[in-house]
Design goal:
With 445 residues, the protein is an alpha/beta fold. 28% of the residues lie in helices and 21% in strands. It has 16 helices and 24 strands. The strands form 6 sheets. Strands 13-12-11-10-14-19-23-24 form an 8-stranded mixed beta sheet, with helices on both faces. A 7-stranded parallel beta sheet has the order 4-3-2-1-5-7-9.
């Protein structure tokens, strides 16, 4: 059958398409820019008509209407794999539930039936002449979601770039049960401008980098600052292998630092799994032969990462204790982010022959009452979730320097960690280390 004819046979309004959702269904929105805005709004209009519909998403870049229009959760309960600021606000207000996961395993949760999907709704780029829709900047676990779903509804978003993939990068019109034409632009997540502390942290990391590294960056002000420093440096032949493609790579690309020529695998290609950034980033990725999307099960697998001889992973964290345990997803019991791929890349970078992993944070934060607190704590006692265990803690970076913890005894760790704490808190941390039995009497104060 002619694919254009089939497209028109399956074309529905959003209101018609969401009639496929039944009581008790699990509905999956995928994540990030794959969010199906028109379908979400239409589904929210069925509030009071449907019962016990569970919706799963994550890294929301726009307000989610099944949450906004049903705060009493009369019909819909929202679940989040990983938090954006929007998702965090929903969890704070009791309007969403968090689902813990490792990004490298997320696809297998669907494939093995742990994450049920009755109806998959996701945004895709417009259909090509052969009947294929690009998953665009959301390869991630999209293929596993589609394969697990009873019903698949595609929302066509003209603003999404077409991104070529290593695998798992598209869906054919024959696999869709319904197609909806959305008219809203794709969600964006421009990175914040770096702060002076971000620049200090980036400056501590820069000397550890060398020509020909394969680089994984998180998102935020610090990666932007590091990207700008690398762009101004003499470093060359940077390769990209990252779960999240963000604006931090734009400065590197514009400066000609990204060549991907020294990569041991996927040579000549910058590989990523999920994208979230500015329209400028999306325009760069559109039909660019130098970039490939790939499933998280490949990108985040430590067995993939170990094949790079000079892999460098740089991510953020929230706090740590004197034992070297790192929290990157909560403040006490308040969910801030998620494990995501941090542990994947810490593990893989260590397995890389000359690999390095850095977790960065400011040494202090100021609360709403104006009180300053150390991000380095004696020990975690308030429910803080350990993202990276002390046995895998890599190099920790604050504006005061770098503490590389691999192979250190407890007393060596406490000394290295306290050395990068804010000076105003160091004496109290030393006292705590003594009380906890991880401070040698001969150590300096």
């Amino acid at each position: 059958m002619d694919v254009t004819q089939l497209y028109h046979q399956k074309l529905r309004t959003a209101q018609e398409a969401v009639r496929l959702v039944k009581d008790g269904d699990w509905v999956d929105y995928s994540q990030s820019a794959a969010f199906p805005e028109a379908l979400d709004s239409a589904l929210a209009q069925r509030r009071g008509e449907l019962a016990d519909v569970k919706v799963r998403g994550g890294i929301a870049l726009k307000p989610v209407q099944v949450v906004e229009q049903d705060p009493e959760q009369q019909s819909f309960t929202y679940h989040v794999w990983h938090c954006s600021a929007i998702d965090r606000g929903y969890i704070d207000r009791g309007l969403a539930f968090f689902q813990p996961m490792l990004f490298r395993d997320c696809g297998s949760y669907y494939a093995r039936g742990f994450a049920k999907v009755d109806v998959a709704m996701l945004s895709v780029a417009p259909m090509d002449k052969d009947g294929n829709f690009s998953f665009s900047i959301m390869n991630g676990v999209t293929r596993e979601i589609v394969d697990s779903a009873r019903t698949v509804i595609l929302e066509v978003c003209p603003g999404l770039p077409v991104v070529y993939g290593r695998s798992g990068d598209h869906i054919h019109i024959t696999e869709a049960d319904a197609v909806v034409e959305g008219g809203k632009p794709a969600g964006t997540a421009p990175s914040p401008q770096p702060t002076p502390i971000d620049r200090q942290i980036a400056g501590h990391i820069l000397p550890h980098l060398r020509d020909g590294i394969t680089l994984q960056l998180g998102i935020g002000g610090m990666p932007n600052a590091l990207g700008a420093l690398i762009a101004q440096s003499d470093l060359k032949d940077i390769g990209i292998h990252t779960e999240m493609m963000g604006d931090g790579y734009l400065a590197l690309y514009r400066a000609g630092k990204v060549t991907n020529r020294k990569k041991e695998i996927d040579r000549g290609k910058g590989v990523f799994s999920v994208g979230a950034g500015s329209q400028e980033l999306y325009q760069l990725l559109d039909r660019h032969m130098g970039f490939l999307s790939a499933p998280m099960g490949y990108v985040n697998d430590p067995m993939t990462i170990r094949q790079f001889s000079n892999f460098v992973s740089i991510n953020g964290c929230i706090s740590m204790d004197l034992y070297g345990q790192v929290c990157s997803e909560s403040t006490g019991i308040r969910q801030i982010s998620g494990t995501g791929g941090q542990l994947d890349f810490v593990t893989g970078a260590y397995m890389s022959e000359h690999g390095k992993a850095f977790l960065s944070m400011s040494s202090v934060f100021t609360d709403r009452q104006g009180y300053r607190h150390s991000r380095i704590l004696p020990r975690f006692t308030q429910g803080d979730i350990v993202t990276t265990p002390r046995t895998q803690a890599p190099c920790i970076v604050t504006e005061y320097g770098v503490a590389c913890l691999s192979g250190l005894a407890t007393w060596q760790r406490s000394e290295a960690i306290i050395a990068i704490a804010h000076p105003d808190f160091r004496e109290d941390l030393i006292q705590a280390a003594q009380e906890q039995g991880i401070w040698r009497r001969s150590q300096r104060r």
